[in-house]
């Protein structure tokens, strides 16, 4: 499953914001870093999610 998520992330069909909900229930924080190349951040600020949020105030 990790390999599939990594492949989908690499293709651009998944974003970090899509994957963050799987931590820690489905994948570990280390798996998240392996897939996205970034540390898991518990603050809720995930790269790639802001553009999808139509209510975001930048």
What is the element string, with H for helices and E for strands?
Answer: HHH
**Radius of gyration from the alpha-carbon trace, in angstroms:** 11 Å
Low-pLDDT stretches are: 49-58
Distance between the termini: 34 Å
Shape: globular
Beta content comes to: under 5%
- Strand tally: 0
Which structural class best describes the helix and strand composition? mainly alpha
Biggest sheet character: none
Task: Round the mean pLDDT to the nearest integer and report it.
Answer: 78
Helix content: 25-40%
The tally of helices reads: 3
Write the topology of this structure:
Blueprint: H1 2-11, H2 16-19, H3 29-36
Structural write-up:
This protein is 38% helix and 0% strand. The protein is built from three helices and no strands. α1 packs parallel to α3. The C terminus is likely disordered.
Task: Explain briefly what this protein structure is.
With 58 residues, the chain is mostly helical.
